[in-house]
Amino acid sequence: MKKIMTIFVFAAVMSASHLLYADELVLADFEGWPNNLGGEMGVYGSLEPDWENTSIPYSWIYDSEVKDQEGFDRAYVHSGGASFRLVNGTGAKPSSNWGSFAMDLGVTTDLTVEPKIVESRDVSSYGYFTFWIKGQNGGESAEILFRDAHAVSYMPQMKVSVSNITAEWQQFAIPLDQVNKKIDLSQLDNVGMAFGPDVGNATGAIIYVDDFTFMDSADGATVVDVSSTTTL
Questions:
Q1: How much is the pTM?
Q2: Which of 93, 101, 211, 218 suits 49 as a labelling partner, its CA being 20 to 30 A distant?
Q3: What is the DSSP string of 3-43?
Q4: How many other C-beta atoms can be found within 10 angstroms of the C-beta atom of residue 130?
Q5: Using alpha carbons only, what angle is made at residue 104 by residues 103 and 107, rounded to the nearest 5 degrees?
Q6: Lowest-confidence region among 2-11, 15-24, 97-106
Q7: Is the pLDDT of residue 196 over 90?
Q8: What angle do CA 221, 224, 227 make, to 5 degrees?
């Protein structure tokens, strides 16, 4: 019995150690809902779907199992069985001059205030925020958006431009030591992506994104130049 208890305790310690020192933290791989950290996800502005007309491409999880999602092509999924598709200006608000996708880093704890309060996440120990992206045609533009627990509205406090999006899957990495100069990474609330006319995309432009992850290293990804960052 003593030997069994020793093994059990050792296994528990190793499991806790793995959680504490894991070299990556997946925010969203779109294999389920909500995201991997329990946070809500949403699309807004020119990216909002028109749920009465799903015969055209719309912004939402791209999965062969999603109802009414015709013409599924596995090439638009980086890993697993699903990605997220962002379509500019063909949904419920085609005239909106902006469009964004947002992911909370924790569950909502208070909806009575604005911005709503979510369980913040401490990601200050990670070196990079990485993601995979693929354009429908190539040449599309995007911005990664960050908001921490000190934000006074839903507006992002920091934007990082992502250029050179191609029609092939690419992994980009944003160095968090640069983000940490503007954002409190010990209390990160939300990460998003702008993909509307405000970042230069034409009506009907489409990108696919997958595997948003906090990592220790860039691991071969293209490192984003944060010098073009906009702080709001």
A1: 0.88
A2: 211
A3: HHHHHHHHHHHHHHHHHHH-SEEEEE-SSSSS-TTS--EEE
A4: 25
A5: 140
A6: 2-11
A7: yes
A8: 160
Residue 35's φ and ψ, nearest 5 degrees, are -75, 180
**Could you tell me where the beta strands, DSSP code E, fall in 35-186?**
41-45, 60-63, 82-87, 99-104, 108-110, 117-118, 128-135, 142-148, 158-162, 170-175
Q: At residue 2, does pLDDT exceed 50?
A: no
Q: Is the dihedral of CA 117, 123, 127, 128 positive or negative?
A: negative
What pLDDT, on a 0 to 100 scale, did the predictor assign at position 228?
62
Query: Which residues sit opposite 103 in a β-bridge?
Result: 41, 191
Look at the domain 24-231 and name its fold.
Jelly Rolls (2.60.120)
CB 196 within 8 A of CB 151: no
Q: Decide if pLDDT at 20 tops 60.
A: no
Q: Are 132 and 222 in contact (CB under 8 A)?
A: no
Q: Say which residues have a Cβ less than 8 Å from residue 151's Cβ, sequence separation at least 6.
A: 115, 157, 189
Contact 62, 70 (CB under 8 A): no
pLDDT surpasses 70 at 232: no
**Rg, Å, the chain Cα set:** 19
Task: Please report which residue ranges of the chain form alpha helices under DSSP H.
Answer: 2-21, 176-179
Please provide the size of the chain in residues.
232
Q: Name which of 118, 94, 201, 189 is nearest 148 in CA terms.
A: 189
**Alpha-carbon distances, residue 194 vs 17, 107, 118, 119, 162 (angstroms):** 36, 22, 21, 23, 10
